[in-house]
Specification:
9 strands; alpha/beta; seven-stranded mixed beta sheet; 9 helices; two-stranded antiparallel sheet; Rossmann fold
Length: 228
């Protein structure tokens, strides 16, 4: 990959002082993405919405020549962290490997200043030669990545549920596979809203693509748009 993006978004010189852990907020279906990474020989991937790097670890462990660009503001406040932890059974406690920390120690670590960013860097430190962290928001950072000459094979969205980024992604990289999470997500009080489904299906119809999905995971494939 072009050195410009690594130089523009360098990692800290040393591993941050956070005990590494793995926590995937996984609604299922990520085997679709792992299969794509293998079958399409994905070498460069962008993940929008990295959280603490649980899914990033999944991608990087799956294919040893994969480089992952992670875009996230890493700006979770203490109330958000306490909410996730207080509802951890709904947010994938079965997918948490706390690295040997007690519950109290784990929560206290996440409440430290700048924990969102530095804990993620620590979690992904063993893959620092293949992980580029971009601290910012999409779609602005997608424009930045494109301007630096990066051409991803696959883009995975796990952030904004309205998916305003889809047009930017296709305009910048028309051959990239577009994929993401949260297929069955709805906001509290609107149980049947499914904003991700609406955004993806509208986009697929506009561009003549087929929506493929399993559990919470989806991707767009060439062909006539279809119901899923």
């Amino acid at each position: 990959m072009d050195r410009r993006i690594r130089d523009a978004f360098p990692l800290p010189a040393e591993r941050p002082d956070f005990a590494p852990f793995s926590w995937k907020l996984d609604g299922g279906g990520r085997d679709l993405i792992l299969d794509l990474i293998t079958s399409r020989d994905v070498r460069v991937m962008i993940e929008v919405g990295v959280l603490y790097g649980g899914s990033a670890l999944q991608w990087l462990r799956h294919k040893t020549d994969l480089t992952l660009i992670g875009i996230d503001p890493w700006a979770f406040d203490a109330d958000q962290v306490r909410y996730w932890w207080g509802n951890r059974h709904a947010y994938g406690i079965d997918n948490l490997d706390a690295g040997g920390l007690s519950d109290d120690a784990f929560l206290n670590q996440l409440l430290r200043p700048e924990a969102a960013y530095f804990a993620t860097i620590s979690n992904l430190w063993d893959f620092r030669d293949r992980f580029v962290p971009i601290r910012g928001r999409s779609p602005e950072m997608l424009h930045t990545v494109a301007a630096l000459g990066v051409v991803p094979d696959l883009v995975y969205f796990d952030s904004d549920k309205e998916l305003v980024d889809l047009d930017v992604c296709r305009a910048s990289w028309p051959s990239a596979i577009i994929s993401g999470d949260d297929w069955w997500w709805s906001p509290e009080g609107q149980p049947d809203a499914y904003p991700v489904q609406k955004a993806v299906q509208d986009f697929a119809a506009k561009h003549g693509l087929t929506v493929m999905n399993h559990a919470a995971t989806w991707y767009l494939a060439p062909g006539a748009a279809a119901e899923v």
